[in-house]
Amino acid sequence: MCGIVGYIGYEQAAPLLLNGLEKLEYRGYDSAGICLNNGEKLIVEKAKGKLEVLKKLTENGTTLSGTVGIGHTRWATHGEPSDINAHPHLSESRRFAVVHNGIIENYIQIKEELSKRGIQFLSKTDTEVIAQLIEYDYQGNLVDTVIKVLSRLEGSYALGIISKDNPDEIIAVRKESPLIIGLGENENYIASDVTAILTKTRKIYRLENNEIAVIKRDSIDIMDMDKKAIHKDVETVSWDISAAEKGGYKHFMFKEIMEQPKAIHDTITPRIKDGRVVLNEIQLTDEQLKAFNKINILACGSAYHVGVVAKYVFEKVLRKPVEVDLASEFRYRDPIVDEKTLTIVISQSGETADTKEAMKEAQRRGSHVISIVNVVGSAIATESDDVIYTWAGPEIAVATTKAYSTQLAVIYLMAIYMGDKLGTINSEAYSQYVDELQQLPEKITAILNNKESIQNLASKNFNNRDVFFIGRNIDYALSLEGSLKLKEISYIHSEAYAAGELKHGTISLIEQGTLVIALATHEALLGKIISNIQEVQARGANVIGVACDNRSEISEVAQNVIFIPPTCDMFLPSLAVIPLQLFAYYVASLKGCDIDKPRNLAKSVTVE
Ligand code: F6R
């Protein structure tokens, strides 16, 4: 996730900015940069790669002078990781510099408009339009200009802005992306999170949405977009650095679970315009889409589980046969894949060796590959024919949560988009799907707000030896992920079964007290899963059900039920996965496991 730091005071800014950026390294980044006002002009240094590169380039900041500056660590979204795409971004005449966290959704439109007026862009980023717009609209008052520019921006942003003409101020703004102001003695800071400035000050103001701050060495003025002054109480941060890195949470996994509403929002919102799904990333014509006779999905681990959900979704919506393969198996099974097969490759890291090789195998056989990837510029992203990025931000915990959720969101976008092109969904269903999709972040927030009830269930169920997850249809697809989450971080043996399969063998494992987590969200099969619950209960199982809150019948059969809000059938995994992630997290926490780094596992599996 990108990081922002800014300084204004009487000390040399560059070493302080580099120090602040170092504290933000944990967030994940692929390039870094700083910009200072040296009294005459704006000077900037940026470098792809680790902060070490920037430090060497600037001799630890000693080659740049100036007592006001902004710095940034970038996690690539728009434009690959490179020196040029790194922040800060300058306006054409180098009069204004901007660092930005978030996504500007309408940047293409603004860029086209400014390009027509002869403005030259250097980078591929969405951020550069902000710097260019400020210069274009500037009429002598920077605050007025920034307010005007903001009214044109759609999306999310935390911004730090400095100008050549005024070495005595930093402008800071926030909408949807966090930004704080650190208060010092004759010096002040801005930062995207407190870790960046914790060694300098613990006194902060938190900017709220649509607030703008003018920060000078000895004053801070915060106002709303009508320039009405806003009074804030100073907050004193008591966290230590390691707690601050995790946003005050104990583990990255928990932080990432809590970030899911935003991650899904960021992934879907830029791709829905006026109620229509716009997937410019897919370069295929309608005719090419229609010509595919099969969809082939390749992935590993949780990404494979997304693929299993996708099989149910695509077959229902697109009426095309779908095969989902574990990438490690696909490579060696002489698959029947050709130019009539559309291949979809799913990977958070974009570097998983088996997935990458499976993708190449599909390409060798003539298949067109669309990848769904989180890391911009990664091998799978660059080598696939089309790439749709998930905007989950860096995922640090080994066990995936927000990447899984955003991959699902992309699957849904693709289903709606392709269903429309193939003529397999009518306009009524289309609108309903888009509407429900947009409601997912809010519904997930509601589930997260109820996390204590899941913690309570975990406290009664963390000593199990074996746990079984059962479900039917799309609930079965989700049970695979629920089971993996639990076993990988808590080391409890768990299995996922298609509920109808139990009686073909597995039910012999059920004994007095065995925990069975029954996913019963799929309305059409509710009666069937209730029968399966009764079967295991008759053999002594302790059942936790997961069901939609408009279906109370489940409470009559399961000992405990976790309710989720209803939505369209195909979107249910996005909601039902949340309690499963939380359950796994709380169980592992109660068992004292190393949650962010489970034994024997690595975040990115780049070897076969
Ligand atoms: C489990 C998990 C893994 C990954 C798998 C694929 O929580 O994170 O199962 O899903 O290793 O990794 P990517 O998505 O990077 O290809």
Explain what you see:
The chain has 608 residues and is α/β, with parallel strands linked by helices. The chain folds into 3 domains: 3-237, Glutamine Phosphoribosylpyrophosphate, subunit 1, domain 1, CATH 3.60.20; 252-447, Rossmann fold (3-Layer(aba) Sandwich); 457-590, Rossmann fold (3-Layer(aba) Sandwich), CATH 3.40.50. It has 19 helices and 26 strands. It has an 8-stranded antiparallel β-sheet, with helices on one face. It is globular. The chain binds fructose -6-phosphate (F6R). Fructose -6-phosphate (F6R) is lined by residues 300-303, 347-349, 352, 355, 399-400, 484, 488, 604-605.
Explain the layout of strands and helices:
Layout: E1 3-8, H1 13-23, E2 31-37, E3 42-48, H2 51-57, E4 68-74, E5 89-90, E6 96-104, H3 107-116, H4 128-137, H5 142-150, E7 155-163, E8 170-175, E9 180-183, E10 188-191, E11 203-206, E12 211-215, E13 220-223, E14 235-236, H6 241-245, H7 252-258, H8 260-268, E15 272-273, E16 276-277, H9 286-291, E17 294-299, H10 301-318, E18 322-326, H11 327-330, E19 341-347, H12 353-364, E20 368-373, H13 379-383, E21 386-389, H14 402-422, H15 427-449, H16 451-460, E22 466-471, H17 474-490, E23 493-498, E24 515-520, H18 526-538, E25 542-548, E26 560-564, H19 572-590
Parallel strand pairs: 17-18, 17-19, 19-20, 20-21, 22-23, 22-24, 24-25, 25-26
Antiparallel strand pairs: 1-4, 1-10, 2-3, 2-4, 5-6, 6-7, 7-8, 8-12, 9-10, 9-11, 11-14, 12-13, 15-16
Bound molecules: fructose -6-phosphate (F6R).
Residues 300-303, 347-349, 352, 355, 399-400, 484, 488, 604-605 line the site of fructose -6-phosphate.
